[in-house]
């Protein structure tokens, strides 16, 4: 690693088929950092098992998530692309950071509350300590910036607190990371219940646009998106459905809310929903084409994973060894 080189880290769980929430909130922005930062983009499979997974699906989605990273513009020559479980330093530092994280802090995490309500039969310790593993993911690489959706803001703040606490006890060890959140597309909501986040693990496939949905499916799902009983395409209080569609349209076209309101003045929700479906399908078509090519070359993906894990491990163990020495472990 070059001295003074800035580091960017982010990850996506292979816990379901990726959605336009994952795309607009996170992955689409990843490639913008490649020229200025040393970038590590990880497929966080260890996070995914905090919720029960079908092993064959998890394996398949790990390849798919890596292929999607690349299909969304991440060049493995310019970014370190790898799988979390291939670099055991993540789990090791995760354990250590558990000992620097308070029970009360983890209890306040809204994702833990949401997920434990959704998976009441499996409120496991991993679900509870998910944020300490996420802190380890980030802090291992002396990360300066973490591009994430706003739903991850609370976890990132905790990672900063953990880094600050460790640094205060053991002198400067970790870089304290900053979040990076895209202006548009920060939080994409469910099409069936626009008060809830669009999530890849949603059981209702009509609530979610998957990055790999075909054009007809995308347009059909947008046509059925829940909106209020009005007809004016305007952002407003109590118009969660339309607000969400405007956010999505803006994220795909780069147009401002005012421009969009002007464009659809007097045209009604039906026209607008169709237009949102079309811009979304247009944007995703090239990603899907490239994804299919990449996925067909499994050996190529495995080579990317292997090279990525070797590069990541070198950087990760540098930090982990420093941490172990500071703690008094015999290294
Ligand atoms: N709806 C969303 N809007 C904006 N950003 C989103 N992200 C996820 N959903 C939205 C961002 O995508 C990145 C990867 O997310 P993740 O895989 O780590 O897990 P998540 O945030 O828990 O995403 P899901 O889709 O809701 O997964 P499940 O259903 O498995 O829990 C993150 O940067 C996230 O902010």
Secondary structure elements and their pairing?
Blueprint: E1 7-12, H1 20-30, E2 38-43, H2 45-48, H3 55-71, E3 79-83, H4 89-98, H5 103-107, H6 110-118, H7 125-139, E4 145-147, H8 153-170, E5 178-180, H9 215-223, H10 240-253, H11 257-263, H12 268-296, H13 298-327
Parallel strand pairs: 1-2, 2-3, 4-5
Bound molecules: adenosine-5'-tetraphosphate.
Adenosine-5'-tetraphosphate binds at residues 12-13, 15-16, 19, 21-22, 25-26, 148-149, 151-152, 186-188, 197-201.
Question: Can you walk through the features of this model?
Answer:
Helix content is about 55%, strand content about 5%. With about 325 residues, it is mainly alpha-helical. The protein is built from 13 helices and 5 strands. The strands form 2 sheets. A 3-stranded parallel β-sheet has the order 1-2-3. The protein folds into 2 domains: about 5-180 and about 295-325, HUPs (Rossmann fold), CATH 3.40.50; about 205-290, Tyrosyl-Transfer RNA Synthetase (Orthogonal Bundle). Strand 4, helix 8 and strand 5 (about 180) form a beta-alpha-beta unit. The chain is globular. Adenosine-5'-tetraphosphate binds next to helix 1.
